Amino acid sequence: MKKLIDVCQIDAFTDEPFRGNPAGVVYSDELSKEEMQLIAREFNASETAFISKSVESDFNLRWFTPTVEVKLCGHATVASIHYLKQRGIIQDNSSFNFKTLSGILKCSTQNGIHSLSLPIPELKIFEGNKEEIIKALNGGKVINPGKFPFILDNGGYLYIHVSSLRDLMNIKPNFRELLELSLARKGYDTFTLFTSETIGKDNHAHLRFFAPYYGINEDPVTGSANGPLLLVLRKLGLIEKNTEGKKYRFEQGDVLGRNGRIIVSYSPSKNELTISGKAVT
User: Fold this and answer.
1) Which of 84, 93, 121, 142 is 20 to 30 A distant from 171 in Cα terms?
2) Higher-scoring residue by pLDDT: 2, 121
3) Residue 2 has what pLDDT?
4) Which residues pair with 277 in a beta bridge?
5) C-alpha distances in angstroms, 70 versus 26, 102, 137, 156, 190?
6) Same domain, 226 and 195
7) pLDDT tens digit string along 117-176?
8) What is the phi/psi pair of residue 137, to 5°?
């Protein structure tokens, strides 16, 4: 007998339909990994989230791109929180946990704002060949690693400063070359380009995220990149070191017509990194 699977599309990091980053969300205890991958490929969002019951946490959560399972996805987690609240499975002003491949994610929802705490990444200055990356990004005139070094985290996310918002918007990468660099196992497999120039006067950074290795040339709004970006900005001296009790607002997706906004906070005293945003069905 064929299974009837309900896949709900939810736009994360926005309160407007057809903005932010769309994710598929499925709640089922009966799917194999192979079936999850087939559903994600068919749905063809950047990520599809699969929620199931858990004996070790409140819920299990897994994420699949159309081609592979990934260890972390911020926007599909926000979409999953929205799904659970909309279906009445969790209540407003509540906290709960997801068991994931990245460990236990602490989550909450309050007055339509959905939040999750991300694993704290290890950051280091990237010492590899930067020129081949700049060439693949077609960013020769707007990326200056002598002024701001590339930063690599232990999850393979490479962070690259771009001189201005206009230059960031105009970058047109060679995705085949980016894929080849990622496949060469040089320590990175995604590319986060960012600038401190923003569209909104109260925002703190604008970014773009390229991940052809995972079947995603450009992701509209990437929670797992926006969170660590706050730590990157601290490391590069682009924001103050004392972030305790402060909230930072980042922009992404405008170049794709799917503009989204993410609130990021980092508590040094608790060593806790949190991303927050809205979602809409």
Assistant:
1) 121
2) 121
3) 61
4) 114
5) 16, 9, 24, 12, 12
6) yes
7) 999 999 999 999 999 999 999 888 889 888 999 999 999 999 999 999 999 999 999 999
8) -85, -10
Whether residue 3 lies inside any domain: the answer is no
d(CA 166, CA 222): 20
What CA dihedral angle connects 18, 254, 43 and 158, to 10 degrees? -150
| Rg of the chain over all Cα atoms, to the nearest angstrom | 18
- Of the residues 35, 47, 122, 272, only one is catalytic, namely 47
Residues spanned by the domain of 18: 8-118
Sheet strands (E) in 20-75 = 21-27, 47-53, 59-64, 69-70
Closest by CA to 181, choosing from 213, 218, 219, is 213
56 and 136 inside one domain: no
Task: For residue 253, give the DSSP letter.
Answer: -
pTM above the 0.90 mark? yes
The two three-digit tokens of residue 98, written as one number:
């997801």
Q: What's the pLDDT score for residue 183?
A: 96
Query: End of a domain among 96, 118, 140?
Result: 118
| Domain C-terminal end among 51, 85, 118 | 118
Torsion (CA) 6, 279, 261, 235 in degrees, nearest 10? -70
Residue 232 three-state SS: helix
On whether both 269 and 164 belong to a single domain, the answer is yes
Which tokens in the block code for residue 40?
């994600």
Number of domains into which the chain is organized: 2
Residue 41 maps to which CATH number? 3.10.310.10
Q: Tell me how far CA of residue 55 lies from CA of 52, 60, 113, in angstroms.
A: 10, 9, 27
> DSSP 3-state assignment of 59?
strand
**5 — pLDDT class (breaks 50, 70, 90):** confident
Clarify whether 47 is annotated catalytic: yes
Residues 14 and 58 in one domain: yes
